Amino acid sequence: MAVKSDRLExxxxxxxxxxxxxxxxxxxKSVSAFVVDAAVERAEEMVTAQMSTSVPADYFDRxxxxxxxxxxxxxxxKVAKRVERESRIxxx
Length: 92
Hints:
Layout: H1 14-27, H2 31-51, H3 57-68, H4 74-90
């Protein structure tokens, strides 16, 4: 377990504090541990959502099929060739 040396403070209303204390008791944790765990869990959800893209399965299947069959996507092939040409020019 990492050493906890940093401190984080937050102002809450009396109603919020009472709710947090109640929830912490239900979870069998201190208020501090409950709040930190909840905040870290929410932070992970937000970071994961920001770092990933979800698409419907049929959209993904069509995308992969298009990439597998470049001849069916002439525009994509043109862009790929242009990028390849440009990268050769800039690497000289």
